[in-house]
């Protein structure tokens, strides 16, 4: 584990760095377990990494899988969906309107928490993506996606 870290970022996670230094598994072991977990969630085909923004999280996770296990469960390209870009394409909004807070408000998901706990944040993104897909498939999608101030 690197000596170079941002104390504020560590504080968000709620993890104890000293305990991690003593007890955490080696990166190879942790990432192999993560790959097994991802593969265990898969029903058909290759898993797809969902992030917002994928350009940051996707590259970080892909690099870790390749570096410490030799491959990524998301494939050679780290196949993934950037939820913010997807939203922008679906709604025609500007990038500045693709933040999670804005998306949640427009999807009626204001109470959906963002905890900075990996599994909970993954569930948050999955719920948001599901809402985006369901909204897209509804007949009144354009009306539902329009900002309330524009109606």
What does this molecule look like?
With 151 residues, this protein is mainly alpha-helical. It is 58% helix and 4% strand. The protein is built from 8 helices and 2 strands, in the order αααβαβαααα. The protein has helices at residues 7-13, 17-23, 27-41, 54-69, 83-91, 100-107, 118-137, 141-145, and strands spanning 49-51, 80-82. It has a two-stranded parallel ribbon with strand order 1-2. Strand 1, helix 4 and strand 2 form a beta-alpha-beta unit. Helix 3 packs across helix 4 (54-69). It is globular, with a radius of gyration of 18 Å. 15% of the residues are buried. The model has no long low-confidence stretch (mean pLDDT 86).
Element pattern in H and E: HHHEHEHHHH
User: What's the arrangement of strands in the largest beta sheet?
Assistant: 1-2
For the terminal residues, how far apart are their CA atoms? 51 Å
Instruction: Give the number of helices.
Output: 8
Amount of beta strand: under 5%
Structural class by secondary-structure content: mainly alpha
The oligomeric state of the chains shown is single chain
Mean pLDDT: 86
Strand segment count? 2
> In one word, what is the shape?
globular
CA radius of gyration is: 18 Å
Considering DSSP H and I runs of 4 or more, what fraction of the residues is helical?
55-70%
Specify the biggest β-sheet. Answer: 2 strands, parallel
Q: Which regions contain 5 or more consecutive residues with pLDDT less than 50?
A: none
């Amino acid at each position: 584990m690197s000596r170079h870290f941002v104390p504020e970022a560590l504080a968000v996670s709620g993890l104890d760095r000293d305990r991690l230094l003593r007890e955490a598994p080696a990166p190879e072991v942790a990432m192999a377990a993560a790959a097994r977990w991802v593969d265990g969630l898969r029903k058909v085909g290759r898993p797809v990494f969902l992030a917002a923004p994928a350009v940051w999280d996707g590259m970080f996770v892909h690099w870790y899988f390749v570096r410490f296990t030799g491959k990524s469960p998301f494939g050679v390209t780290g196949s993934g969906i950037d939820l913010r870009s997807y939203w922008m394409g679906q709604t025609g909004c500007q990038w500045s309107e693709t933040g999670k807070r804005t998306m949640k408000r427009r999807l009626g998901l204001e109470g959906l928490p963002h905890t900075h706990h990996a599994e909970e944040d993954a569930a948050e993104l999955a719920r948001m993506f599901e809402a985006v897909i369901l909204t897209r498939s509804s007949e009144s999608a354009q009306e539902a996606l329009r900002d309330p101030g524009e109606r």
